[in-house]
Write a structure and sequence with these properties.
The chain is an alpha/beta fold. The protein contains six helices and ten strands, in the order ββαββαββαββββααα. Helix 3 packs parallel to helix 4. The N and C termini lie far apart (61 Å). The structure holds iron/sulfur cluster. The site of iron/sulfur cluster (SF4) has 12 residues, from loops.
């Protein structure tokens, strides 16, 4: 017998140019259970929606929601929020990927909790966790970046992938996960206390100098 259980999904409306909405599925680390997939597919078929598109932040956008059906479709999917809770881009890591040398999922969740605990910040924080130096979690160009090594984690802060793309400052080398979280907490506080409104971490570090950041995390 086929399993027909469905699971609710947290969704955030995103306005589009053509008077429709997309509904962003607020996924954690890109994971969708079979129950969530069933619920989404039911809604796609019932409302004849055109597409489901992956985002760079490991979420999904359900496109083509007519404005007059927005509330009804949100209810059909699950819970509507104004903003998805901040997440992290986390690669599959050692347990799944043949190249992985460290597990990534728990550390990804710990980073999300750490960012939440120490906010608010001058601007958004993007995080990436990668299970090896191929950096599929985009760790080198995220505000917070973690890259697995044979002995632990390289820790970067202040990377960016915009027009002036540059890797973050290396604030820890092959440290334990606990040590990485301690260093990152100090870096986040440094940014929270010194960043200007709407200034990303990379710009704050460029303005104040990487020595100031390194002094803050070593204090
Ligand atoms: S970063 Fe490494 S471990 Fe993670 S998905 Fe890419 S190749 Fe695999």
């Amino acid at each position: 017998m086929h399993n027909t259980t469905t699971e609710s999904v947290i969704v955030m409306p995103v306005e589009r140019k053509d008077d429709t909405y997309a509904l962003r599925l607020c996924l954690n680390q890109g994971l969708m259970t079979p129950g969530m997939l069933r619920r989404v597919l039911e809604v796609i078929e019932k409302y004849n929606l055109p597409s489901l598109r992956a985002t760079t932040g490991q979420r999904m956008n359900l496109e083509g929601i007519p404005t007059d059906k927005l509330d009804e479709i949100c209810d059909a999917l699950g819970t509507r929020v104004e903003k998805c809770a901040p997440g992290a881009t986390v690669c599959p890591g050692k347990g799944i990927c043949k190249y992985g040398i460290q597990e990534t999922a728990d550390l990804g969740n710990a980073i999300v909790a750490l960012v939440k605990k120490n906010g608010p910040y001058p601007f958004k924080i993007k995080s990436g966790v990668s299970g090896c130096k191929m950096s599929c979690g985009l760790s080198y160009v995220r505000d917070i970046g973690l890259v697995a090594t044979a002995k632990g984690w390289d820790v970067l802060f202040g990377g960016c992938a915009t027009r002036n793309a540059a890797p973050g400052v290396l604030i820890g080398e092959s440290v334990s996960a606990d040590e990485a979280l301690k260093l990152l907490e100090k870096a986040l506080i440094f940014y929270r206390e010194n960043g200007k409104k709407r200034e990303r971490t990379a710009a704050t570090v460029a303005r104040l100098g990487k020595e100031a950041l390194l002094a803050a995390v070593k204090a």
